[in-house]
Amino acid sequence: MSRPRAFALLALANLMWAGNWVTGRALRDAYDPVTLNFCRWAVAGVVLAPFALPQLPRFLPVIRRNLRGLLLLSFTGVALFQSLVYLGLRTTTAVNGVLINASLPLFMILCSWAIEREHATRRQVIGMVVSLAGILVIVSHGVLSDLLRLELRPGDGWILLAMPIWGVYSVLLKRLRPPELSGVPFLFVLTALGLAMLAPIVALHAHLSPLRAPSAGEALGIVYMGIAASVVAFICWNKGVAVVGANAAGITIHLLPAFGTLLAILVLGESFAAFHALGIATIFAGVVIATRRASLAGASQPSR
After folding, report:
1. Which of 33, 89, 150, 235 has a C-alpha 20 to 30 A away from that of 229?
2. pTM over 0.85
3. How far is CA 111 from CA 61, 117, 120, 132, in A?
C-alpha cells in the first residue's frame, strides 16, 4: 500500500471516531461505560463474523502462537481504551475532551520512544505544534485567553488516562500483529477477545442493575459505533499504522477535532464562523507538515 493511501485511511478513521465521540457523549446516561463499549463491539462482532469465521480455521495455528500479543492488543485497543473514554464523557464537556484528545500524538511519540526507541522527526514535532494551535483556535472560538478559564471536570482524568493506553496499542500494533492474519480476521479476533474480557463486568452490572432495551435513537447510535467507529475505523487505522508507523499516524489524530467541528456544523446545524475556518486550515497544515516529511523519510528507509 502506498503511503498517501495509508494517510487517507488514517484520516477516514479519524472521521469515523469524531462521530463516535459525539455519539458517546449523547449516550452517556443511557448505559454505563463498560456496557456501552460491550454493545459497540458486539455489533462489530456480528458484522465481522460472516466474513471472518470461514477464514478462521486456517488461522488457528497463527492465533495460538501469537495469543499473548493478541490478548494485549485486544485489552488495550478494544476493552480498556474506549471504556475509559466513555467513562470520562459522562462527566466532562466536549471542549475538555477535545483538548485532552489533542495530547494523544504526544503520548504516541513517547510510547514509540519507550517501546521501539523510535524518535520523532523535527517536522513531526513542528507539525504537531501547528495542528495543536489550530485546535486551540477552535475550542477557544478564536479568543485564546478564554482557555485560561476552562474548568476541569472529573471525567478529564479518565480521558487523560486513556491517551497513553491508545499510544501503547498503536505502537505494539506494528510489532505484535501477525503478518499472516489479514484485516477482517485480525479485527474479529481482537473483537472476540475484547468481548470476553468485558463480558464478566457487564454481567455483574446487569445483575446489580437490569439492562433495558435501547430506544430507536440509542440503538442507531450503538449501531454507528459498532460499524463505523469500530469495523471501518479500526481496519483503516490498523492498515495505516502498519504502513507509516505510530509517530506519523499519531499526528493525524489532530484531524479528529477538525472533523468533529465540521460534523457539528453539518449535522447539528451549528453556525460556521471565521475562527472555524482558521482553526481547521491550521490543523490540516500541521498534519501536512508532519506527514509529508514522514513520507519522504519513510520512502528512503527499509521497512522494519
Report:
1. 150
2. no
3. 30, 9, 11, 19
